[in-house]
Amino acid sequence: MNAIKALKLPLRRHAGTVTLLALACLDTQAMSERRVGDHLSLALPIGTLAVEAWRGDWDGAWQLTQTFALTTGVAELLKKTTGVTRPDGKGDNSFPSGHAARAFSAASYVHVRHGIEAAWPLYLAATYVGHTRVQAKRHRWSEVAVSAGLAYGMARWRVEPLGAKAQVAVLGDGVFVSLHWQP
Fold first, then answer.
1. Which neighbouring-strand residues pair with 177?
2. Do 102 and 43 contact (CB within 8 A), yes or no?
3. What is the model's pTM?
4. How many whole angstroms separate alpha carbon 69 and alpha carbon 51?
5. DSSP assignment of 94-157
6. Among 22, 40, 140, 183, which residue carries the largest CB count within 10 Å?
């Protein structure tokens, strides 16, 4: 009986692993590395959303949706306004990487909501997406890093850690206000 109990993975902690296992079903033999990165950039947020819906975490699903929309929206705005030429010389919308922004939005959401233990497989997959964009000479590593930072910032802004409660404490003479998360 204990062996069966030990084999069960607590899904809350391993949502990223479950998502990556689902992604392993992709027919990667028939696709180039770049195409795998293209598909993975969308499969990560969609797979994460599916896991949250399956778990019944509708607040989390909404927070993921907000993180994804804000991250990709800001990334597209920056692409249109910065005019950075792509490494292959085709176009002036290189900064930041939209593919990496999509992938890192899922990883960052899982990190903030569920912790790094659940997020590291998604971060690994998102980094691979960035690698495919750099290898295809569509982006530079700095543009991938900015996408990752943008996604993490949006997740920190929009995502509430699971089981956490915000508390406001007035200290001293009422001049200082402290806001912190209580796990």
1. 170
2. no
3. 0.76
4. 18
5. -SS-HHHHHHHHHHHHHHHHH-HHHHHHHHHHHHHHHHHHHHTTS--HHHHHHHHHHHHHHHHH
6. 40
Q: What pLDDT shows up at residue 63?
A: 98
Q: What is the pLDDT of residues 64-74, one digit of tens each?
A: 999 999 999 99
Nearest of 100, 121, 110, 126 to residue 20 by alpha carbon:
121
Residue type at 118? A
Q: Is the peptide bond before 161 cis (omega within 30 degrees of 0)?
A: no
- The pLDDT of residue 49 is 96
Dihedral, 87, 88, 91, 92 alpha carbons, nearest 10: 10
133-136 own/partner pairs: CB under 8 Å, 24+ apart: 133/37, 133/97, 133/99, 133/100, 135/33, 135/34, 136/34, 136/37, 136/88
Do 150 and 96 contact (CB within 8 A), yes or no?
yes
Share of the chain above pLDDT 90, in %: 68
Nearest by Cα to 148 from 1, 39, 41? 41
Structure tokens at 164: 């956490």
Q: Which two tokens stand for residue 125?
A: 């997959």
Distance of CA 167 to the CA centre of its chain: 26
